[in-house]
């Protein structure tokens, strides 16, 4: 990560600088916004920490004019309440009071670094893809990552970068579908001052920002044919031409491209260059859809529950059995991205001690769409769901849950419950007395527990 500190904050932000450097980041200082803009045009940055006394609104406006996308964090003494509010209104993502709290600074840097790009998987279909990724990561070969939207193509690209010899160099991502066609060339290759209307100064593009590191071209199938030719030359010659430039600029990068479309079909349709496909597709990492790796569903669901419970300051609840069955039976057209949003919603909607099926909903409050499964597949999915809930629990926890659930099933009838459990009525009563002493809700005879009360 590249951190740029702007203003007279160097001494007060020593802690931020130390934390950033210890985390592998590079730190640059600029006395004012004019110098900061020059730094951004020449080398870019991943985060700006700006003195709240400066004109943050004006800085953000200039960043927008020059299409420089970088988060801004305002910093100042706690008494600068009005300036802090104005900075947030102007577009600053966060306000950090000075002197800085080390934990707060570390949290801000971690959030920007977005190092939550860890690979979370359990299914063998995904394991094979990650194994191949690890095998080719140390090389400089171009990689094409394909798969449906939401399967985690950028997450895998970041994983490859971290496993490569370029891990300490920049990882730069460009979404080719999100940037208008007439701006993408400048975004990728940079431009010289006066190259076009609005080009107020020379600016380096993403190729130069990624020098020494990795450049991710996300959704490359959306790139215009003319730019494809320029990209092909950059990959072959390892040089780029800035818009309006008079001489080539050498670059040392590794290119990873992603696409949710079949590029071979695009070649046949004439919308994608065949020679560029061969250049990019040295290694193809094809991500399976989430429905094709069922063992990952619950693994990822539990990961997102922990993530969003901590983010929203709520207890981490287990996922109830019926909710797990619904998750495993869902179609997941949006893949991991849809699952993440669903579990974020579930964390907010859940009541009681578990995330039950009533919290697994679509954004409009309707039930998630499920697919009918055969008896054998349903049984296998159910067994997987049950097994996953046992991991991490003690034997005593599992025994207590089994006894109380069986008692619920028997509506509090001790004799029937003991018979099903294969224990004596005396042993059952001793266990129930123990649970009551521990403060656990044990139903009286003839009643079941009241969940969510």
Automatic annotation (TrEMBL):
<dbReference type="InterPro" id="IPR001789">
    <property type="entry name" value="Sig_transdc_resp-reg_receiver"/>
</dbReference>
<keyword id="KW-0547">Nucleotide-binding</keyword>
<dbReference type="Pfam" id="PF25601">
    <property type="entry name" value="AAA_lid_14"/>
</dbReference>
<keyword id="KW-0805">Transcription regulation</keyword>
<keyword id="KW-0010">Activator</keyword>
<dbReference type="InterPro" id="IPR003593">
    <property type="entry name" value="AAA+_ATPase"/>
</dbReference>
<dbReference type="Pfam" id="PF00158">
    <property type="entry name" value="Sigma54_activat"/>
</dbReference>
<dbReference type="GO" id="GO:0003677">
    <property type="term" value="F:DNA binding"/>
</dbReference>
<dbReference type="InterPro" id="IPR025662">
    <property type="entry name" value="Sigma_54_int_dom_ATP-bd_1"/>
</dbReference>
<keyword id="KW-0067">ATP-binding</keyword>
<dbReference type="InterPro" id="IPR025943">
    <property type="entry name" value="Sigma_54_int_dom_ATP-bd_2"/>
</dbReference>
<dbReference type="Pfam" id="PF02954">
    <property type="entry name" value="HTH_8"/>
</dbReference>
<dbReference type="InterPro" id="IPR027417">
    <property type="entry name" value="P-loop_NTPase"/>
</dbReference>
<feature type="modified residue" description="4-aspartylphosphate">
    <location>
        <position position="51"/>
    </location>
</feature>
<dbReference type="InterPro" id="IPR009057">
    <property type="entry name" value="Homeodomain-like_sf"/>
</dbReference>
<keyword id="KW-0902">Two-component regulatory system</keyword>
<dbReference type="InterPro" id="IPR011006">
    <property type="entry name" value="CheY-like_superfamily"/>
</dbReference>
<feature type="domain" description="Response regulatory">
    <location>
        <begin position="2"/>
        <end position="113"/>
    </location>
</feature>
<dbReference type="InterPro" id="IPR058031">
    <property type="entry name" value="AAA_lid_NorR"/>
</dbReference>
<feature type="domain" description="Sigma-54 factor interaction">
    <location>
        <begin position="119"/>
        <end position="348"/>
    </location>
</feature>
<dbReference type="InterPro" id="IPR002197">
    <property type="entry name" value="HTH_Fis"/>
</dbReference>
<dbReference type="InterPro" id="IPR002078">
    <property type="entry name" value="Sigma_54_int"/>
</dbReference>
<keyword id="KW-0597">Phosphoprotein</keyword>
<keyword id="KW-0238">DNA-binding</keyword>
<protein>
    <submittedName>
        <fullName>DNA-binding NtrC family response regulator</fullName>
    </submittedName>
</protein>
<keyword id="KW-0804">Transcription</keyword>
